[in-house]
Amino acid sequence: MAGHASKQIDAKTLWGGKMSPFSTSYGKLMMWFFLVSDALTFSGLLIAYGFTRHDYLGSWPIGEETFQSLPGLGHGYPLIYVALMTFILIVSSVTMVLAVEAGHRMDKKGVIKWMIATIIGGFFFVGSQAWEWSHFIHGSEFGKVELADGSLATVHGEFGELENFTVITAGDHHEKGEVITEDLMHEYQHAAADGHIVDDKITLHDGSIAKIAKHPNTDVELYIKEDGGEYKMGDRVKGSEAIAMYEEAINSGEAGRLIYGANLQENEYGPQQYGQFFFFITGFHGFHVFSGVIINIIILLGVIGGLYHKRGHYEMVEKTGLYWHFVDLVWVFVFTFFYLV
Amino acid sequence: MLRDDIVEYSLEGHHSEEAGKKIRKKILFVTVLLTAITMFEVGMGMYIKQGDTWSWLITKWVFVGLTLLKAGYIVLVFMHLGDERKALKYVILVPYFIFVIYLIFILLWEALAIGDVWAVAFS
Fold it and tell me: Are residue A183 and residue A253 in the same domain, yes or no?
């Protein structure tokens, strides 16, 4: 950018009071100061995350193991989805910088075009994050399991499909002999977590007892995350032994042996704080993206109305642009410190 | 009252069609670079397993370096901080870095110390 910033001006004029020593307008300067304070907030959050992680004695969840699903394609794609989100945000940052550039040429049509692209990118990102949250909250089909020796393990493999439940003892809603085919997974996980499955018989919400028809789990591998009597952190158990150990926990009839998904009290991925930091940091960032989209829309309306063209410059676009790039900047750090390392 | 002694900096950002072309070229370059770095990071994360190994330790620091590189391009090119006056650049960057480096050092150091104490207390 040619302009005051690159012009040689002697110190007396610069700091003499008539002009800004920074050669920027008041608004832009204030936006920068706001961004510095916001950057400090995010730094505080990420460093707090680092603090918790460094003093934690057990094994902390690994990004590639926790986030490896794609919408419609199942699991087995470590970090691809987050990388895609990162790419979406980078592209929307690029379209924003192109809008700013068009503004510098007083090209109103160009500004409108690129700002619309930016807004679409922003919505895509917020939508992606909604999916990510939903997936994180619902969790995997296997969940986290407490094995017979007291060790905790995450489970990987192919979950055998549930076919149906056949009621053998009637409850409040279901008759004897009724075959239930709906909402199986939900009922199964709830019952497993509450210890309501014994010998492949499930006690449903209404008190009825049903026989489970289910394909066997295959390729099961247990990653031990916390020490027990027999297995230690970092151990891996494979094969029929792993399948049997998992089945034992499911059929134990003890509550609390299985944890599915995540909430603020517990999660299947790791310690409680992991879920809390996930929700807070990505949530706070997502909130920034959302408000950025709203601000972009407001400024876009101003551009379409010709407000900035009349003013003679598109600095408002530049200012929202600064905020939008900042959101991208924060995501770069969240991506590295929450997902990669 | 109109004052003619105040400089209207907002008008200083304008540039010509030709200068615009050059800027767009630079934007394209940064886009490709940022995307390539992200892909490289994901690939590295996929193939190098986490653990107490040298390869992971190196990977971790490579990640940190690449993140700072990406951040640098975003701040200096996309946010135009590289084109601003030196005074503005340093007013933004220096206090921030002093504070954050200090905070990282003090908190992570403290966390490791707490972890050591807990490891003894819980064993």
Answer: yes
* Residue of A280, A287, A289 lying closest to A338 (CA atoms): A280
Say if pTM beats, i.e. exceeds, 0.95: no
The residue in chain B having the minimum alpha-carbon distance to the alpha carbon of residue A41 is B100
Tell how far CA A229 is from the center of its chain.
Answer: 34
Strand partners, B10: none
Q: What is the pLDDT along chain A (341 residues), one digit of tens a residue?
A: 445 566 677 777 666 666 777 888 888 999 999 999 999 999 999 999 999 999 988 788 888 778 877 777 777 777 888 888 999 999 999 999 999 999 999 999 999 999 999 999 999 999 999 999 998 998 888 889 888 888 888 888 888 888 888 888 888 888 888 888 888 888 888 888 888 888 888 888 888 888 888 898 888 888 888 888 888 888 888 888 888 888 888 888 888 888 898 888 888 888 899 999 999 999 999 999 999 999 999 999 999 999 999 888 899 999 999 999 999 999 999 999 998 88
* B76 and B92 assigned to the same domain: no
What is the predicted ipTM? 0.90
Using CB atoms and an 8 Å cut-off, which of residues 83-122 of chain B contact chain A? 83-85, 87-88, 91-92, 95-96, 99-100, 103-104, 107-108, 110-112, 114-115, 118-119, 122
Count of domains in chain A? Answer: 2
Judge if A283 and A321 occupy the same domain. yes
**Angle (CA) A33 A35 A37, round 5°:** 75
Local structure of residue A340 (DSSP, 8 states)? I
Domain membership of residue B100 as a residue range: 85-123
- Name the packing angle between helices B86-121 and A26-55 (round to 10°): 20
Last residue of a domain, one of A205, A230, A261: A261
Domain region containing A200: 144-261
Examine residue B68 and state whether it is found in any structural domain, yes or no. Answer: yes
Question: Do A166 and A313 share a structural domain?
Answer: no
The alpha-helical segments, DSSP class H, found in A148-271 are 184-194, 239-250
Interface test with B, best of A90, A98, A223 (most B CBs within 10 A): A90
